[in-house]
Please model this.
Amino acid sequence: MGFFDALIGRTKPVSANLDRIFRMTNAKLTLEAQESYLPTGKAGVCFRPMVGNSFSNTESEINELLSLDNGSVENAAQASQTEDEYGFRWITVQSNDFEELVTRVHYINATLNDNGWSPQLLCSAFGFTPLQKNSLSNSHELYIVYLYKRGTFYPFVPQSGEKRDTETELRIKEELKEDLVIEKDLAQWFPIWGIPLQ
Model:
């Protein structure tokens, strides 16, 4: 932070640390062992849509890589794009191989970042589902959200009627504190209603 920034009280934004996304593989193991949550095989990257040829070229580059078959039909990642009800764009990725899923989400973030679209990146999310949906402790879907601009993670457990299970979120926060850089400011744990990863 420069002298002028310090003088007027402006803070420099935290640089995104995209390599932290790879730590999701450890978080997956913890969620399975401690909470009986299994990955849904779906993840997504959310950003503000842009127009113009350069952004179209970036999207083409992402789609090209995501459409490549890695030699195994079973593990090949499939991608699609959708827009949520708030006008944000999602690139969703689906794969039975969780490490492949994490790698593809990292690639999408890195590609958008490297092409100058970092201001548009909002978050990434990984879906998990309870092993037994009739258990009282974890009967709802879980999303681990990565905040691009803060380089941190938080759990989001939506319930019907745009409510959230904060008790489960806080418990999972404690479970994952050794695996992920958890967002300390709970005000940054934004609900993402209608997340397109079902």
Summary: The chain has one domain: 15-188.
